[in-house]
Amino acid sequence: MKKQYFIILLFLSILFFGCPYQSDVELCTYEEALKTDKNLEGNWVAFHDDGSKDELFIEKIAKSVLQVSHKELDKNDRSKGVNKYRVYGTNLNGTILFNIETKEGKYLFAKYGWTGKNEFYIQTIEEEYMTKNFVVDSVTTDALKSFLFDRASNEDIYDDKVEFYRKDSPEYEKVKMFMKKSGF
Questions:
Q1: pLDDT by residue (tens digit) across 83-109?
Q2: 43 SS3 class
Q3: In 3-state terms, what secondary structure has residue 126?
Q4: CB-based contacts of 138: which residues, under 8 Å, 6+ apart?
Q5: Residues of the chain with pLDDT under 50
Q6: What's the rounded Cα separation, in Å, for the pair 157 and 163?
């Protein structure tokens, strides 16, 4: 049963983030993590071309740690799955990278940025890039940080951006109306 749950979680993560790199080590600990961005707290929605959407509920659980509940919805607003992650950031050479901790103790890595008052994007580090370029005998926090230090600002290491809108904001309503007019 545990193996099935892990496979389902991995599948949902791939759907949500593209094909993210997954590691057994984190880039920093909770204690070393940056203070959370309080503007990220709340309900967020990402709309997709096929009419499906992702909803995030982000809450602060410690000075440097966010709890993220991720809900996937199909085009008819039926739930396809719910996952919870702990998220905490580190600064690598001016780029803030999130450690996204899964329930299984694995880590995904992503950067985020603000595109407006009520809009942000997230991009995960791509599995294919890391497989080709990060070749080490054993993955350690120091080796991973060292490898990513000069590459964190390079767009080639990331999957496509996923844009989120604060639920019920004017930006959310505009995108929602556009999707409705487009037949979704």
A1: 999 999 999 999 999 999 999 999 999
A2: strand
A3: strand
A4: none
A5: 1-17
A6: 18
Q: What are phi and psi of 160, to 5 degrees?
A: -65, 155
What DSSP string describes 82-106?
Answer: EEEEEEEEEEETTEEEEEEE-TTS-
Residues 56-90 as b/e (b if ≥16 CB within 10 A, e otherwise) read bbbeeeeebbbebebebbeeeeeeeeebebbbbbb
For 134, 146, 159, the CA distances from 19, given in Å and listed in that order, are: 16, 22, 7
Q: Which of 62, 47, 52 is nearest to 177 (CA)?
A: 47
How far, in Å, CA of 90 to CA of 30, rounded?
A: 10
The residue among 21, 11, 10 whose CA lies nearest residue 131 is 21
Structure tokens at 97: 């990278």
d(CA 50, CA 75): 7
Q: Using the 8-state DSSP alphabet, how is residue 77 labeled?
A: S
What rounded mean pLDDT belongs to the chain?
89
What 3-state class would DSSP assign to 183?
coil
